[in-house]
Amino acid sequence: MLWLVLLFFLVATLYIRILRNFDYWKKKNVPFEKPVPIFGNFLNVALGRQQVGAAIRQIYNKFDESVPYFGIYIFHQPFLVIRNKELAKKILIKDFNVFQNRPLYYNAKIDPMAANALFILRGDVWRALRNKLSPIYTSGKMKLMMPLMKEVTDQMENYLNTLNNQEIDVRDLANRYSIDIICSCAFGINSQSLKFKDSEIKSMANKMLDLRSLKRSFAIGAYFFCPLMVELFRLSFLDTTCSNFFINVFKSSYEERQKLQVRRNDFIDLLHTLKTEESNNDLFKFDDFKMSAQALVFFTAGSETTVGTLSFCLYELAMNLDIQNELRNEIRQNLNSDGTISYEALFEMTYLDLIIKETLRKYPLTHLLMRYAEKDYTFEETGLHLEKGTPVIISMTSFHYDERYFPDPDKFDPERFRGDKSKELQYVYLPFGDGPRKCIGDRFALMSMKIAVSMFIKNFEVTPNERTEIPVKQSKTAFFIIPDSGSIFLNIKRIE
Question: How many CB atoms lie within 10 A of CB 271?
């Protein structure tokens, strides 16, 4: 009987604490959505009925333009969600010293790979690693990697030539292309995913960050919103077996490279250079594992960004043949005499750039940016005071579909980024984030996407068919933005 009383007392205490926390935004006079016990405003997300981004966007749209922010509760934790462009700028750039870190779970004992990832690292250690890695992603270094990418796009073109006038799953194609690109540029190997659909590397890569897996989505969500679950179940951000597989691939490739003294101007070579240039005073020093961790992050982040953007881009081009034809004309006008595209031409094609930007607006890989206050902070515009540790959300999908900034947001309209319009959309168009913690690999991602789209549309036309889902139904359980079916079917036809 005594244990029942103790259990009742424990449950009652937790319930009262949670309810008391639900007064947080009311006491601060911040507009908020009424939460439900235990789940806060995330009941439908927890039950798999709604995307994370859709849940936040639904609340976001309830307020008018005079509301600069609102409060939500993710389980019992209060989060501030930004609705104002200038406040987003303050958080990402002007007051970055206060909001420099992400409130993601960090524990080197539970997940040493994640603990050494630039995405999760904090403070001085993050800054030290960022400074080390930045030279890898300069335009000059990216230009040197372009021949490696061209080899893969040539392989994709050869593969597509065998599928003329056939239906293909462009998401599967983009997946195989991205794996070959990243394996070549990050691990220095030819994964041959375009040639062999069921290769071991492709299988491991897809399982490592399986966006449709409930287990993986739960683990990733816990790192963002519920650290207690990570502690209780000792969750890893990526599938451990698969990440260990790729760490071993990297180590083997690295050791072989040093033995044979071969250079490819890829990620392995660049990391090796950084390691040899280290001094004893460096705050972040590379060892074999830490180098492998950077390659693994490079692999997962670059691969998933390319898969989503390339497949959704081809889908939108199939839905908008006038845009597709105009893009094809631009690409063909910028070809070299041998039918290839130079690095300079790739980034000078205006319409291609507009199309990629619009694809990333409608389909950013993730839904939100997260920061937390390193110290007590007051918004001088409104007087709102945030205590140290308060997490803040900038909802990319909410901003990207806000009619104040993007009229008729469901329409695929590349012209909305033409000319000076892009400047007006700064701090509300955030596919790679902004400020000092902007995605470090955005140049690499854009290059891999642009070279693939250029090759594809240069000689092939994509059109919808009876299996094409219009519009594409998004997964409600995946933490990122992916089709619920996992596929996007289109017809492909070679044209001269």
Answer: 23
How does DSSP classify residue 35?
P
Distance CA 367, CA 51 (A): 9
- Does residue 471 have a cis peptide bond before it, meaning omega lies within 30 degrees of 0? yes
- C-alpha–C-alpha distance, residues 483 and 468, integer Å: 12
Give the Cβ contact number of residue 67 at 10 Å: 13
Torsions phi, psi for 392 (to 5 deg): -125, 140
Residue 403 sits at φ, ψ, to 5 deg, of -65, -15
Residue with tokens 């963002």: 224
**Claim: this prediction has a pTM higher than 0.70:** yes
Q: How far apart are CA 169 and CA 172, in angstroms?
A: 5
* C-alpha 338: how far from chain center: 35
Which residues does the annotation place in the binding site for heme? 439
Cα–Cα distance, 88 to 73 (Å, whole number): 20
* Interval 16-64: pLDDT, tens: 555 557 889 999 999 999 999 889 999 999 898 999 999 999 999 999 9
CB 386 within 8 A of CB 80: yes
d(CA 168, CA 310) in angstroms, rounded, equals 14
Structure tokens belonging to residue 159:
């593969």
Q: Whole-number mean pLDDT of the chain?
A: 90
Q: Give residue for tokens 């934790």.
A: 77
Q: What does the block give as tokens for 10?
A: 């424990």
Select from 352, 356, 314, 317 the least CA-distant residue to 331. 352
Strands 77-82 and 489-494: unpaired
> Residues annotated in the binding site, as ranges?
439
Beta-carbon count within 10 A of 440 CB: 20
